[in-house]
């Protein structure tokens, strides 16, 4: 067979080692897979081919130690990020670590240990954190500041991701040491990062002073707000504003929440990257990126530690989520809430798909927004599009919303079945967290249904389960809601105890300026103490109830309040105004679900 005209003779082929060609091909396939919008099948095919090239190099060629270690780290990184071959990835890393030990390749060794710890954490977080603690000791003994920082931040990250609230003290200790090191060496970016992480730990703690401590940590980070390091870290500025917004909402500071929301939105508009790097203030070798597996990088001769946050689209969607929550915090019936959340949904569904976790969070929050606006049909429709799986918090919140919609539309027994489901069952002694808050709300709602169905003893038992949590919760709304439920369980003859309980409820609700809860409490007070009574105090009570009902824009409570107001006016000899109010009450009640209307007939508190 004759060679084709355009084929080169064997002796004229370029003298390029085959292993170098395979490594170059691997780089090109990875770049193509990560470089643009391609289909899933092609994406996985290109990455699979890249890993095949790297495996072939390791199996068929004898490389110098540094190159072999780099290939092992590259291959293991792809396996960890793109496959479920955990055992094979661990084997590749273990052999690589032994090679690095023999040849004293410190950066490559620690880069492999960093990846191995992250891999171990997916199956055994405690073992991974213990291993990182050992590496921290090793690097600090060797005065290797760069890797000491790297492993301490990894330990903090694993603690935040996999640890519980009881790990807060350990995390704060880690951060305190990082801050001491950073102040000693004047590493400003590290100080900003550590202070910001301190704020996160304080907010997660659930402690009564957690918000105050978080604000102090944020104030420490903001002392560098005019420093060049802060100017180079838009991602951290966004995170600081997000945390500031959470603090403001926790303290019901609407003005501060608005300011933080605006600042966060402005920063997000110009954001170009989700990942960021902080300067460690030390000189770096030019190949530190390759030797560390991308954990460290060299910029203008200095060592930087890389942090991966979220892709820009997801960060912007999270911004819309927080903006929506902030708008609902200012005014539960504000239409801006739905606008922000829908904007976030459009963004995540376009960039991330409908099954993305952020998409699911946005839909759950949108369901909650429709619930606060009493649009139960739309709430049910939105909830039906959420995923039933997810973490414990997501499952519990989804079930709570499902039960709330049933309860609000008058389907009490189906709602009770949902509240009794395991994800919403409150168990005394379990660890605190967002799940516990959802379970607490579910239990309070269950108490109201049980009492309505005549199951008084069971209702009392349920309320006692959440008493300590509600009374000690840093959010005063739990305190107030607990006292509303407690008042509901009092016999009608217990006028003074009920009055004392409701006084506590209204005082707590006033500190939060929650119009909806104040509306409920004042309607209960009017019904309990001024029903059928004429006088200035009775008139003031029903007037306040009517005003609060309109502020809360809750059709049912507007109808109830206006009906009580109308009756009081009739008894006071003012039938004309009473007729107008009754007409308004009937119009509002007509918009309430029929099943709920029937439950409200002859209802007394």
Automatic annotation (TrEMBL):
A single GO BP: mitotic sister chromatid cohesion
Highest taxon, organism lineage: Eukaryota
InterPro entries recorded: MAU2
Cross-referenced Pfam families: Cohesin_load (PF10345)
Cell compartment(s), UniProt: Nucleus
Keywords (A to Z) from UniProt: Cell cycle, Cell division, Chromosome partition, Mitosis, Nucleus
Cellular component aspect of the GO annotation: nucleus
Family assignment from sequence similarity: Belongs to the SCC4/mau-2 family.
Name used for this protein in its record: Cohesin loading factor
Source organism per UniProt: Piedraia hortae CBS 480.64
């Amino acid at each position: 067979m004759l060679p084709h005209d355009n084929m080169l003779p064997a002796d004229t082929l370029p003298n390029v080692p085959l292993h170098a060609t395979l490594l170059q091909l691997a780089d090109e396939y990875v770049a193509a897979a990560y470089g643009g919008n391609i289909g899933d099948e092609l994406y996985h095919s290109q990455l699979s081919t890249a890993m095949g090239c790297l495996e072939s190099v390791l199996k068929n060629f004898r490389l110098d130690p540094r190159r072999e270690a780099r290939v092992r780290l590259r291959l293991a990184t792809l396996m960890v990020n793109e496959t479920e071959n955990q055992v094979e990835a661990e084997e590749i890393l273990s052999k690589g670590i032994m090679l690095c030990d023999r040849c004293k390749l410190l950066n490559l060794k620690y880069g492999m240990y960093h990846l191995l710890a992250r891999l171990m954490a997916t199956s055994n977080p405690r073992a991974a954190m213990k291993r990182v603690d050992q590496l921290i000791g090793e690097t600090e003994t060797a005065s290797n500041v760069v890797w000491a920082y790297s492993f301490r931040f990894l330990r903090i990250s694993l603690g935040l991701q996999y640890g519980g609230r009881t790990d807060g003290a350990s995390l704060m200790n880690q951060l305190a040491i990082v801050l001491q090191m950073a102040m000693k060496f004047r590493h400003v970016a590290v100080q900003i990062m550590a202070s910001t992480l301190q704020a996160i730990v304080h907010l997660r703690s659930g402690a009564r002073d957690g918000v105050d401590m978080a604000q102090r940590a944020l104030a420490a980070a903001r002392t560098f707000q005019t420093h060049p390091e802060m100017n180079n870290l838009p991602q951290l500025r966004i995170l600081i504003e997000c945390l500031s917004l959470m603090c403001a909402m926790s303290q019901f500071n609407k003005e501060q929440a608005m300011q933080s929301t605006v600042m966060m939105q402005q920063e997000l508009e110009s954001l170009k990257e989700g990942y960021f790097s902080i300067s460690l203030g030390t000189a770096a070798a030019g190949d530190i990126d390759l030797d560390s597996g991308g954990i460290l990088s060299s910029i203008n001769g200095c060592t930087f530690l890389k942090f991966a946050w979220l892709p820009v689209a997801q960060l912007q969607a999270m911004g819309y989520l927080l903006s929506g929550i902030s708008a609902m915090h200012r005014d539960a019936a504000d239409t801006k809430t739905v606008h922000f959340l829908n904007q976030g949904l459009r963004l995540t569904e376009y960039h991330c798909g409908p099954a993305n976790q952020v998409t699911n969070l946005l839909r759950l929050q949108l369901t909650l927004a429709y619930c606060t606006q009493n649009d139960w049909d739309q709430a049910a429709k939105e909830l039906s599009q959420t995923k039933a799986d997810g973490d414990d918090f997501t499952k519990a919140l989804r079930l709570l919303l499902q039960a709330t919609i049933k309860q609000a539309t008058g389907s009490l027994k189906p709602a009770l079945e949902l509240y009794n489901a395991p994800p919403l069952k409150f168990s005394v002694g379990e660890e605190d967290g967002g799940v516990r808050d959802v379970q607490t709300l579910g239990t309070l709602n269950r108490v109201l249904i049980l009492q309505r169905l005549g199951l008084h003893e069971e209702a009392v038992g349920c309320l006692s389960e959440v008493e300590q949590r509600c009374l000690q919760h840093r959010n005063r709304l739990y305190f107030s809601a607990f006292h509303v439920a407690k008042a509901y369980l009092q016999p009608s003859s217990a006028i003074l105890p009920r009055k004392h309980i409701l006084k506590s409820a209204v005082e707590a609700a006033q500190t939060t300026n929650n119009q909806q809860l104040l509306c409920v409490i004042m309607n209960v007070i009017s019904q309990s103490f001024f029903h059928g009574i004429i006088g200035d105090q009775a008139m003031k009570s029903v007037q306040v109830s009517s005003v609060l009902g309109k502020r809360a824009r809750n059709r049912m409570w507007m109808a109830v309040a206006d009906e009580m107001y109308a009756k009081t006016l009739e008894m006071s000899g003012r039938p004309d105004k009473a007729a107008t109010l009754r007409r308004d009450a009937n119009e509002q009640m007509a918009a309430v679900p029929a099943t709920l209307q029937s439950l409200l007939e002859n209802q007394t508190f």
